[in-house]
Automatic annotation (TrEMBL):
Protein name: HPGDS
Biological process, per Gene Ontology: glutathione metabolic process
Source organism of the structure: Bugula neritina (Brown bryozoan)
InterPro entries reported for this sequence: Glutathione-S-Trfase_C-like (IPR010987), Glutathione-S-Trfase_C_sf (IPR036282), Glutathione_S-Trfase (IPR040079), Glutathione_S-Trfase_N (IPR004045), GST_C (IPR004046), GST_superfamily (IPR050213), Thioredoxin-like_sf (IPR036249)
Record-annotated GST C-terminal domain positions: 80-208
Pfam families: GST_C_3 (PF14497)
Domain GST N-terminal: 1-78
Gene3D superfamilies referenced in this protein's UniProt entry, alphabetically: 1.20.1050.10, Glutaredoxin (3.40.30.10)
Single GO MF annotation: glutathione transferase activity
Amino acid sequence: MTDKILYFNLRARAEPTRIVYALAGKPLVDERTILEKWETLKADQPLGQLPVFTCSEGTLVMSNTIARYAAKKFGMMGDNLWEEALNDMIVEACQESFEKLSSKVLRWKVMNIDPEPENPNVVIEEAYQELLKTLDFIKKVAEKRAKAFLICNEISLADIVVFVALQHAAVVYPEVMSENEWIEEFVNKMTSDERLKKYIEERAETPL
Ligand SMILES: N[C@@H](CCC(=O)N[C@@H](CS)C(=O)NCC(=O)O)C(=O)O
């Protein structure tokens, strides 16, 4: 069977896995459900949440577990235990950052799920400063490594999750893409990858 990811019609939690498959040149069934169908589908999902990944070995839930599994399968978690741990660290840092950005800003400003807070501009600015702290942490880790990409000389999962995080953040903070030379260079390097370029050109346009 062909590996499959079931998610909503969003980049969000499924995007790193989709990009791993695109870069590996491997087929992935990218099934996207709509909210109207979700109410009936939810009861059949292992944890009542998406994404859900299925392959010949079985079913996985938890977006980062799925992304790591895919990255390991296609050699994108580094070449040794240390590089794998560094990849993991950046995946977790981005996850935490995404959860904060999502709960503080994206849910009301982009998704219209939550009501706007009383002091929207303060919330938006504080969330941006928090995001920049995480990016600065990742920059320091990468500069210490001095590799072509964040952790390795090839794109690994860390690069993918940081790139996805930047694209999420750019929905609210377009300036993040040129916040500093390091981010600019990183984004240029990623978008110069022909496989990623093609994937981005062909993927569905979604708010997040
Ligand atoms: N920790 C889980 C969180 C999954 C999650 O919160 N999924 C949301 C969409 S981003 C969901 O399924 N929401 C619909 C629902 O809970 O009914 C992961 O990373 O996969």
